[in-house]
Automatic annotation (TrEMBL):
GO cellular component: aminoacyl-tRNA synthetase multienzyme complex; cytosol
Record-given protein name: Methionine--tRNA ligase
Domain annotation Methionyl/Leucyl tRNA synthetase: ranges: 4-409
Enzyme class: ligase
Family stated for the protein in its record: Belongs to the class-I aminoacyl-tRNA synthetase family. MetG type 1 subfamily.
Cofactor: binding details: Binds 1 zinc ion per subunit.
Chain span(s) of sequence motif 'KMSKS' region: 346-350
Quaternary assembly: Monomer.
Chief location: cytoplasm
Residue span of motif 'HIGH' region: 11-21
Length: 573
């Protein structure tokens, strides 16, 4: 048994996430967490809402709520949707938690002690119309790197370059649109990442098993242009974690807060502390996941995120941890994703384009989405959601292959033998051949899941389902029954055991359907299959009762698909 710490990129608080956000972070993290638990590992799966920064302030201003209330409400909304998608977090925290305040101030103090913080007088854009400084997303303009005209003050969404507000060409206020801007002086703290460049590069170079997407982005930010830049980690804002040096005030930094990208990854650690508090655990119980001197030396830490988050997780957050010179756990593996696009364009929260988590659940149960999203995860390149593609995958994989298998087997058994596993006959060559095939496929499935190759794993699982249908078709118990009911009984006994086997293997992808299958077979989730698949196919013994389940998956009709296509063609209302 291993100990595995899993974090998903923490979703930003300013609205409901779309299916791209889901498949780029939380959902594959959940898949992996469920799989690791099923394999008997000890798992700590953490996520949280990312609540600081300018977009939260802007969104709260729009609804007229105080920003703290807005964040509390939206956290509740996101937590409810996470439950709806069956995301099995051990804790879903908040970056505005007291634990994160404490840890963020602590890390800043340690970094300062170790010479990794520099105070700089900085030129900041001030807006006369808005009577305030315009950090980060409060300012928009043209990207100096790629020419994209909606780049934000902190990052260009188009080319992923990290920016400072003063880098933008033809800048304008995101609040008022005003171009009546002035550059004024103000003092800020910088994280001296450049001092750690060699250390970071050596560490990245040691990660030879990481996805190329992860290491290539890291290398780009380490070496492109002037190389790794120091990063401003404070802002002139009200909402955020007050700048302190550990427990102490920081002279000259009064009224300033830490930059959201400084405190957000520290929330991964804070979420564990929140978990301990919420569950009546001791400090030591969460620290054994995070401190290599307090029990975490055998923990494997895996992070999940979309590509735009990679620079912060490969460079800035590791710089924070390394620079603390404390034995906090560094990430062992970063699984990053390309983008999921929506029907010929991009998903966009700001433009309300695409399908959002609440809308998806209002249409179909979570398993339908989980299956499509995971089996089409944007791993080696961007991928695209289209309604045709979605309809096809649901109808084929879920309804025709898996659902149909379960339905045919249980209904046939009910009509010929009653609702219990039939006795009679014995497994023969055909069953042994299938077991051999299943064994090979199961190994491949596990290898892909261990390597977090999500699409390949989905492909193997689908192939395992298909084997059952092919077996049933070839064995044809309905024909056998006429001449040799015992042979039909053996085929059906084998098939009922296959249903249980499928339920166990499919649980990480489609947990609800898996639970329904196990309930129908009147059995609990006995452990992951071992080496001996002959035993697996005898778990449900003759006489064991079952229920013929309700339809597991329904098909999507063409008219329905067309209706959704039309409904989601425009902007979210
Ligand atoms: N289209 C997409 N496909 C896959 N992953 C995505 C996509 N868009 C964002 N992500 C990832 O989703 C996770 C959560 O994103 P976050 O809540 O920060 O929103 P975001 O990146 O601002 O997205 P948006 O700009 O669309 O609101 C991040 O890991 C991000 O990289
Ligand atoms: Zn750009």
């Amino acid at each position: 048994m291993a100990r595995i710490l899993i974090t998903s990129a923490i979703p930003y608080i300013n609205g409901i996430k779309h299916l791209g956000n889901l498949v780029g972070s939380q959902l594959p993290a959940d898949l992996y967490a469920r799989y690791c638990r099923a394999r008997g590992h000890e798992v700590m799966f953490l996520c949280a809402t990312d609540e600081h920064g300018t977009p939260a302030e802007l969104a709260a201003a729009k609804t007229g709520e105080p920003v703290a209330e807005y964040c509390a409400r939206m956290h509740g909304v996101q937590a409810e949707l996470a439950r709806g998608f069956r995301l099995s977090f051990d804790h879903f925290g908040r970056s505005s938690s007291p634990q994160n305040h404490h840890l963020t101030q602590y890390f800043a103090g340690r970094l300062a002690e170790n010479g990794y913080i520099e105070e700089r007088t900085e030129r900041q854009v001030y807006s006369h119309a808005d009577k305030r400084f315009l950090p980060d997303r409060y300012i928009e303009g043209t990207c100096p790197n790629c020419g994209y005209d909606k780049a934000r003050g902190d990052q260009c969404e188009n080319c992923t370059k990290q920016l400072d507000p003063t880098d933008l060409i033809e800048p304008r206020s995101a609040i008022s649109g005003s171009t009546d801007l002035e550059v004024r002086e103000t003092k800020h703290l910088y994280l001296r990442q450049s001092l750690m460049k060699d250390e970071l590069e050596a560490w990245i170079d040691s990660k030879t098993d990481w996805p190329i997407l992860t290491t290539s982005i890291a290398k780009k930010w380490l070496n492109d242009g002037d190389g790794l830049q120091d990063r401003g980690i404070t802002r002139d804002l009200d909402w955020g974690i007050p700048v302190k040096r550990g427990e102490d005030d920081w002279p000259g930094m009064e009224g300033k807060v830490f930059y959201v990208w400084f405190d957000a990854p520290i929330e991964y650690i804070a979420a564990a502390a929140e978990w301990a508090e919420a569950n009546g655990k001791a400090e030591a119980d969460w620290r054994r996941w995070w401190r290599t001197d307090e029990g975490a030396e055998d923990v494997r830490y895996v992070q999940f995120m979309g590509k735009d988050n990679v620079p912060f997780h490969t460079l800035s957050f590791p710089a924070t941890i390394m620079g603390s010179r404390d034995p906090w756990k560094l990430v062992d593996y970063i699984k990053s994703f390309n983008y999921l696009n929506y029907d010929g364009g991009q998903f966009s929260t700001s433009q309300g384009r695409g399908v959002f988590m609440d809308q998806a659940l209002a249409i179909l149960p979570s398993d339908y989405w989980r299956w499509w999203l995971l089996s089409h995860a944007p791993e080696t390149s961007d991928s695209e959601f289209t309604w045709e593609n979605f309809q096809q995958a649901v109808n084929k994989d879920l309804a025709d292959v898996l659902g149909n298998f379960v339905s045919r087997v249980t209904k046939f058994c009910r009509s010929k033998f009653g609702e219990e596993v039939p006795a009679g006959g014995a497994y023969g060559e055909r069953e042994n051949a299938l077991i051999d095939d299943l064994y090979i496929r199961l190994r491949a499935y596990q290898d892909h899941m261990d390597a977090i190759e999500v699409r390949k794993a989905a492909g193997e699982l689908r192939a395992i389902w298909v084997l059952g249908n092919e077996y049933l078709q070839a064995a044809a118990p309905w024909t056998a029954f006429k001449t040799d009911p015992d042979e039909a009984a053996a085929i059906i006994r084998f098939s009922l055991n296959l249903i249980r086997f499928y339920a166990v293997l499919s649980a990480p992808f489609i947990p609800d359907a898996s639970a329904a299958m196990l309930a129908a077979m009147k059995t609990g989730a006995a452990g992951w299959p071992g080496e001996n698949l002959i035993e697996e196919m005898a778990v449900l013994a003759p006489g064991h009762g079952f229920e013929t389940p309700e339809m597991l998956f329904r098909k999507i009709a063409d008219e329905e698909r067309e209706g959704w296509q039309a409904q989601f063609a425009g902007q979210r209302g």
